[in-house]
Write a structure and sequence with these properties.
Layout (H helix, E strand, L loop, with lengths): L2 H13 L3 H5 L9 E2 L10 H9 L3 E2 L18 E4 L4 E4 L12 E2 L8 E3 L2 H15 L3 H5 L7 E4 L6 E6 L2 E9 L3 E6 L1 H7 L7 E4 L1 H7 L10 E4 L8 E5 L5 E7 L3 H6 L6 E6 L14 H7 L1 H21 L4 E4 L4 H12 L5 E6 L5 H14 L3 E5 L3 H9 L8 H18 L4 E5 L7 H4 L4 E3 L6 E4 L7 H11 L24 H7 L6 H15 L4 H4 L10 H7 L15 E3 L4 E2 L4 E7 L5 H7 L7 E3 L4 E3 L3 E4 L3 E6 L2 H20 L15 E4 L1 E4 L15 H5 L6
Parallel strand pairs: 11-13, 16-17, 16-19, 17-18, 19-21
Antiparallel strand pairs: 1-2, 3-4, 3-5, 6-7, 7-8, 8-9, 9-10, 11-12, 13-14, 14-15, 20-21, 22-24, 23-24, 24-28, 25-26, 26-27, 27-28, 29-30
Helix pairs in contact: 9-16, 11-16, 13-14, 21-22
Length: 695
């Protein structure tokens, strides 16, 4: 299917309000630009809100991702080729005053320094793929190496050295780390390759250098260790790199077969030498080279803090998570001449080093610590709610937002101005926020972020400039600091921390019990499938189908809504769970009362714009405000009662204005006729007199 046809289909799907297809894994096209500037869909709010978030996007074909890239802000990374250092925004280097050049990176562009653990993984991965010593060749210790996180099913970082993207470090669930080369990386590895290479005859060089794939008749030699799916470098007979790509057959097959493509070319060019710049740079040098930009953004942020404090007459605190962003925020507040409280919520899932770091910062700056402990809240609620997921984050409500609301009410009865390390480059939700906001799910708190428009590189250069101690887990390879089993973390990171977490075995035991109870196979744990209630399409293919359907009991059941709310596109969201499994086929019929229903037969769930309900009893509710959330919760309660208690009495027949209901032992709804008006949610013996529900 051509790119234009696929793009037209995408627009058609959006305008039909079929956003679920996109959310479940439709790929945005990796080799074309999609210019979408606030397109409007006249009849469907979901289509309009989705398109309104997309901007002009370019996803390099090397990303090989099934996750759409979205611009959350300007792409600010540049490079001084004279000093061989990364530069943010500045057209001139602060050290040498020479012009800088833009680095072509993938949105959202939240670049950061590579630490030793990151570089060790890079070297080990390249050595495994291309031979011992090649990792050191590609990633020398005497240069500043930059990582840029790009959209992928799990972890994927573009790796920038000398102002060039050499390739991407990608983690695939089930197979681990792979290094996906760009042309500059291929050129640097070309000489003396012992693994991962294909040499082509002279007559094939011209077409391959223009991105044709190497066909078997044109292959002169191939590394015998190549397996189908391996990353490969395509060389001339003189040993010059002309393309990089992925093997379509093994190296032995390339030499024995007489037809077919040996590899699929991803990047290609005419033969040319690598552009290797002199080394010897440090991150202290990078701070000096970015002096003008740092001075500007710090001055602006400090001014923001001062103006915000003048506007709001209330106590000042810094919400401190133990991560880099909250640390930078604290330093800015201190630069503004303030002595804030340190507000720390111990979720019970913190790294030991994080708790120690929070205490050390309080002692170093002689600041009062205001702390609330969630204790065993996560483990106590785990059996009830099941494992948290990216789209089912009940844990944030019970372990973070709830404790935060309690401590703020106790310590700041008249309210608190809390400076928070939130940045637009972290997510679409945070990009949509202003720099100051009222927090509907933590009463009495006004949140303010002086670093809203900073990139991760701004944060790190500012911390390096101040010489401050930061959380040691960054040096161990983590990109973000939070709860050690957060479903928003990459599986690569969760696996990396397992050996150092005392409750990791406890967590794994629970996952195995839950998988057995819910009918998931071993891949559900090994591939991190628990991190989604509605997995993206690539993850669905890895997980396969559940082994058994869940049978709901006939006894009455309760519904429990998690405390607190989280932000979402519609406004706020909350998660809940029934105390038993559901008859999802019956729920599918009655979910029409709250909107058009889409049924997912893989995870067995009913999806509407406002409510998603799973067979296992999990529910996710979205609303524009707290009032609508509780109204929708009440409707969901009645839907469940009707679905499981209907005896076909016919009470609802006269309530339907479109004659969409008919009786076949139980009530059924004609989806073509149903207008989702909710009239039939009214008087109903099943809803009014059966079951015990509590919200």
């Amino acid at each position: 299917m051509s790119a234009s046809i696929r793009f037209n289909k995408l627009l058609k799907d959006v305008c039909n309000s079929d956003i679920k297809k996109l959310r479940m894994g439709m790929t945005l096209f990796p080799t074309i630009e999609l210019p979408i500037w606030g397109l409007k869909c006249p009849s469907h709010d979901r289509g309009r809100s989705f398109l309104g978030r997309l901007v002009k996007i370019f996803i390099p074909s090397s990303t090989s991702t099934d996750v759409p890239a979205v611009r959350l802000g300007k792409l600010l990374l540049r490079w001084c080729r004279n000093c061989n250092l990364p530069i943010l925004e500045q057209k001139l280097c602060s050290t040498c005053s020479e012009p800088t050049v833009e680095v072509k990176i993938t949105p959202p562009g939240d670049a950061r320094p590579a630490f030793k653990a990151d570089i060790d993984v890079l070297k080990e991965t390249v050595d495994r793929q291309f031979g011992r010593g090649k990792g050191e060749l590609l990633f020398p210790d005497n240069k500043t190496i930059v990582l840029n996180k790009v959209p992928h099913l799990d972890r994927m970082d573009e790796v920038i050295i000398d102002g060039h993207v050499l390739g991407s470090l990608r983690f695939d669930p089930g197979s681990g780390y792979h290094f996906v080369l760009r042309m500059e990386g291929g050129r640097r590895l070309a000489k003396g390759l012992r693994k991962g290479f294909i040499t082509v005859h002279k007559g094939a060089v011209g077409s391959i250098s223009k991105k044709a794939s190497p066909m078997v008749p044109g292959i002169a030699k191939a590394s015998p260790s190549i397996k189908k799916g391996d990353e490969v470098i395509i060389l001339t007979e003189d040993g010059e790199a002309i393309a990089v790509g992925i093997a379509r057959m093994s190296g032995k097959e390339m030499m024995s077969k007489t037809r077919g493509a040996g590899a699929k070319t991803r990047w290609a060019s005419a033969p040319c030498p690598p552009e290797v710049l002199p080394g010897g740079q440090t991150w202290e040098d990078a701070v000096a080279a970015n002096r003008d930009n740092l001075s500007k953004v710090v001055k602006k942020a400090v001014g923001f803090v001062k103006r915000t404090v003048e506007k709001y007459d209330m106590p000042v605190a810094v919400s401190f998570s133990g991560g880099k962003d909250s640390l930078a925020t604290l330093l800015l507040v201190l630069e503004a001449g303030l002595r804030p409280d340190i507000l720390f919520i111990d979720t019970g899932l913190e790294f030991e080093e994080t708790v120690e770091h929070v205490g050390a910062i309080c002692r170093e700056y002689d600041l009062p610590l205001v702390q609330e402990m969630a204790g065993e809240s996560f483990w106590e609620n785990l059996d009830r709610f099941g494992p948290p997921a990216k789209d089912y984050r009940w844990c944030c409500k019970t372990c973070k937002l709830g404790p935060a609301a309690r401590i703020i009410k106790e310590k700041y009865p008249k309210g608190v101005l809390s400076f928070i390390g939130q940045r637009r480059y972290e997510s679409e939700q945070r990009a949509a926020k202003k720099s100051v906001w009222k927090n509907p799910w933590v009463p009495l708190q006004i949140g303010a972020s002086p670093i809203q428009n900073w990139t991760s590189m701004h944060i790190w250069l500012y911390l390096f400039m101040n010489g401050v101690e930061y959380n040691p887990w960054y040096e161990k390879g983590l990109e973000r600091i939070g709860c050690w089993l957060c479903p928003s973390s990459d599986l690569a990171e969760i696996e990396a921390v397992g050996s150092e977490i005392k409750d990791y075995d406890r967590w794994q035991d629970f996952l195995h019990q839950y998988a057995e109870r819910s009918g998931w196979g071993k891949n559900w744990i090994g591939y991190g499938g628990w991190r989604w209630k509605l997995p993206p399409q690539p993850m669905r293919e890895l997980l396969g189908r559940r082994k058994k359907e869940l049978k709901p009991p006939e006894d009455p059941f309760e519904f429990h809504l998690s405390e607190g709310y989280g932000p979402c596109v519609m406004g706020i969201s909350a998660e809940g769970i029934f105390t038993s499994t559901l008859n999802i086929d019956r729920m599918r019929v009655f979910m029409n009362l709250v909107g058009e229903v889409e049924y997912d037969d893989v995870v067995r769930a009913c999806l509407t714009e406002r409510v998603t309900v799973f067979e296992e009893g999990v529910a996710i509710i979205k609303a524009k405000d707290e009032k609508e959330l509780h109204e929708t919760s009440g409707i969901l309660e009645r839907i469940a009662r009707k679905a499981h208690g209907c005896v076909g009495c016919g009470t609802c027949l006269g309530q339907c204005p479109t004659d969409a209901i008919h009786i076949e032992e139980v009530a059924l709804i004609d989806e073509e006729k149903c207008e989702h008006c909710g009239s039939c949610i009214g008087p109903c013996p099943a809803a009014d007199f059966t079951g015990e529900f509590s919200f």
